[in-house]
């Protein structure tokens, strides 16, 4: 309990967002399956139908348990510390930007594909992940069962490479294009709100891998 309190202290927005994603996704995967299909982002005919809310609501549901757990772990690992570093207003703005930019790009890229639909918090969480790496370029995380820490930049690059490959394969309803859009949003956001931070992060990365 003390560890949980330490994690959430100073990060009210991250706590609320993670709880919302977990609860809404769990309801959709168990007791209310219609929630998933109702809130899917379907770019084709979006303007005609007028369901613009799915640009946001699709970011709070997930296709399966592994998708949910992977996104939840990534957000837990990077979101709480980032909110404490940036402050809640900037963190909320970053999350909103990641969600809206990734959903908007998805809607544009797939607007002529009648069968395309996507869901998941990947875009917003990818923005959080890459902004966190700009702020903490030398951070690392532990992922069981690996007995050694993984540098956060390595995790981020692997995350992005997986997204690019999965996007090309176009499998499932997970919006891999959103991962890429979110990553770019996170880096651009930090460049705007903290000029020079991206360059400093790159310097820290070169120091990390050059040591």
Secondary structure topology:
Blueprint: H1 2-8, H2 12-29, H3 34-39, H4 46-49, H5 54-57, H6 65-86, H7 88-109, H8 122-135, E1 140-141, E2 150-151, H9 152-169, H10 176-193, H11 197-210
Antiparallel strand pairs: 1-2
State the secondary-structure class.
mainly alpha
**CATH H-level superfamily:** Rhomboid-like
- Return residue spans where pLDDT drops below 50 for at least 5 consecutive residues: none
How many domains? The number is 1
Helix amount: 55-70%
Gross geometry: globular
Question: Per CATH, which architecture?
Answer: Up-down Bundle
The description of the largest β-sheet is:
2 strands, antiparallel
Could you name the CATH class?
Mainly Alpha
Membrane topology: Multi-pass membrane protein
Main location: membrane
Pfam family, one: Rhomboid
Organism: Pseudaquabacterium pictum
In a nutshell, what does this entry contain?
The chain has 211 residues and is mainly α.
Question: How would you explain this protein's 3D organization?
Answer:
The structure is a single chain. The protein has 211 residues and is mainly alpha-helical. The chain has one domain: Up-down Bundle (Rhomboid-like fold). The chain has helices at 2-8, 12-29, 34-39, 46-49, 54-57, 65-86, 88-109, 122-135, 152-169, 176-193, 197-210, and strands at 140-141, 150-151. Strands 1-2 form a two-stranded antiparallel ribbon. Strand 1 (140-141) and strand 2 (150-151) form a beta hairpin. Helix 2 runs antiparallel to helix 6, helix 8 packs parallel to helix 10 (176-193) and helix 9 (152-169) packs across helix 10. It is globular. The chain starts with a helix and ends with a helix. The mean pLDDT is 86.
